[in-house]
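Hi P.,

Sorry for the delay on this. The queue was packed all week, but I finally got your sequence through. Input first:
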Amino acid sequence: MPDWFSASWFSYATLREFEWAESLFLYLLPGIPALFGLRWLFHNRSRQRLAVAFLARDLRTGWVEYLRYLPALLTIAAMGLLVLALARPQRVSQRVERSSEGIDIVLTLDVSESMLETDLAPTRLEAAKRVARAFVRGRPQDRIGLVVFAGDAFSLCPLTTDHELVQQSIGEINGGLIRTAGTAIGSALGVSINRLRESKAKSKVIVLLSDGDNTAGSLDPVTAAQLAQAFNIRLYTIAVGQGPAGGGSVVSNSGTAPVDEGILNQLAQIGAGQYFRAADTRTLEAIFARIDRLEKATIRSSRYREVQDFYFVYLNWAILLLLAAFLIKTTFIGNVLED
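Then the structure:
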């Protein structure tokens, strides 16, 4: 059976799926049964009631009595369908395609012993991990990688859009991940740059989070920042801790943890990025939120609208019902019903 004969076209749910190009015609629908009701009322009042034979009375009982109303009902239904056809039901499908030139980001986290200080609750490292997770969740379009460092540095997670893998890798970070003591900022930048140098992304970014006390590694941090600049990699640095600026120190429950802002500030300037200081968890969250705003990829949206008319479905049904009503009234079936 063709689609336009399907009974589902008469369902209320189907009508609600449509958009109506000429929706004002729908206001005519309640008037159709009202007009037929008035016609029936005036017709009955003007009709002379004559005595009928017992045989005729018998014929007008049962199902024949109800069939006499069939042509009128078919005509009402046909007119209703004609009104629906005039209202031009349309099924509109819209498709939005979004494309963006993603940003490649390497999160470079210090896991040295100084990051276990408790001036950021519960520790500097755990606070950094929590905020890094939230940062990753907010960058669904971007490839993100992960580098960790202490006295040495290595890539914990390659650049990937598999953010579940990134989140899992962040969860595995702990203070005992790298046995080599110290803080090798230059080496960490070198590993991060190696991940990004062949990237074809529109923007390449390193977010380095440390207490800034460079005490290990064979690569000078300033030289590493200059390499980042040469590869067009932007460098954001975040100093974590409550100690005084410029290589001062903060004494905590576990000992003395230097916080050197000077080197991190210098690295950010060379790397065409920005330097931030996070003395508490709330500030750290605000810093990552700001970096998130600064490094936004341009998303292009293309909207496609496809319109499919279905007025012919209701028009075909209306014609079919009108023909049926006409045939019933002009054939012997109509004669039986009028007797």
